[in-house]
Amino acid sequence: MLCRRNFLAASLVSLAAQPVRKPNIVVILADDLGYGKLGFQGNSEFPTPHLDSIASNGMRFTQGYVSAPFCCPSRAGLMTGRYQTRFGHELNVVGRRNLDPSIGLPIEERTMASQLKDLGYATGIVGKWHLGGTECFHPLNRGFDEFFGFLHEGHFYYPPPYRGGLTRLRSNEPPYDENNPLMRGRDPVEEGSYLTDALGREACSFIDRKREQPFFLYLAFNAIHSPMQASVALMKEFEGIRDEQRRLFAAMTRAMDNATGKVLAKLREHRLEENTLICFLSDNGGPTQELTSSNLPLRGGKGQLYEGGIRVPFACQWKGKIAAGKVSEQPVIALDLLPTALAAAGAKAPANLDGVNLLPHLLQPAKALERKSLFWPYGQNIALRRDNFKLVRQRQGKIDFQLYDLSKDVSETNDLATSRISLRDSLLEELESTNRQMIAPLWS
């Protein structure tokens, strides 16, 4: 009996001595997805059950933001946890044929991948990079162990001649695949599957291969960015939608939801769900005329600093840690994901980050975030939010600063700039002070 007790005691000591495995981190990013186009955001036109499950199994943020209204600078902020204008990455890089080695995320900036890799994480990116197309900016040189995707901003979902799907292109549709091949690592590859399906497949493969160690997976869909292409099979699911452009949008969104569902199922298969922090968001608001993507009830869209350009669907799941079905009204921003991931991994965030750690609020929703304000510069447009008040200059017709109370006017229709002059001036002073900390864009 004594021996048995000694054996049990030794076993308990051994178990207690084993290090707790760091949680996996999965960031899923949609491209150009409008604020109101998922089920968990109120859309009832077509279902998105798998993306909705991230919100229902965790916390949905009604005031989730990105740091820029365009793809490239938004991703720079997400990857670094810093306002991208601190290092001159302010504007959107769209030149696929411009291989200038100075255009990309500055090599001095440390990415989420590089910081998690230092903590023992396997790191993989699947999908769209859009942070530099030359070798020095390549994902494999920025902290990622594996890469399957493309380097520039857009890509066809089916290769020419687009067999197996329905395509609707504008007459001026750019040659998305020119100098922008699909790659595995550094090698171009041919892909026969619909691209969103292929990205889901590769994300699942990464989880299969890295399941025995902590991993960081960045699944950056190009859906639902143009060009508008969808499979015939999914188009048939939405025959009740009469407008073809709208039907294409629904099918493309469903493909992204299905691919996300396969990733979530893969985590469950390997019993990793309760040790994985999953965050989903879009890189900016939807371009409504191009895609039929709605940002309602928000004003504006992609490219603008009104809410429709920068407020996005945003949800986090960590089963067993984050209580299910929580809804937060706290303003959060994509910059917060890096300090949150580092905190989940047991590490302290660098002092130069602009994002804040969301974990205390995610785990105990009653805890408010310690944040003073949010800031958005983009070219000649600029905005700052403090508490519920937002000061914005959007140079499209009206060039003066406008002031809105977002707690009462989320659609930004009632300009308070002339009736709340002292508040406007106080916000303007803070905006100008913050902007002086930034540097001029590296390109224009």
Describe this structure in words.
There is one protein chain. This protein is α/β, with parallel strands linked by helices. The protein has two domains: 21-370, 3-Layer(aba) Sandwich (Alkaline Phosphatase, subunit A), CATH 3.40.720; 374-435, Arylsulfatase, C-terminal domain (2-Layer Sandwich). It is built from twelve helices and 19 strands. It has a ten-stranded mixed β-sheet with strand order 8-7-5-4-9-1-11-13-2-14, sandwiched between helices. Strands 16-17-18-19 form a four-stranded antiparallel β-sheet, with helices on one face. A three-stranded mixed β-sheet has the order 12-3-15. A hairpin with a 2-residue loop joins strand 7 (183-184) and strand 8 (187-188). Helix 5 runs parallel beside helix 7 (244-269). The chain is globular and about 60 Å long. Residues 10-17 have low confidence and may be disordered.
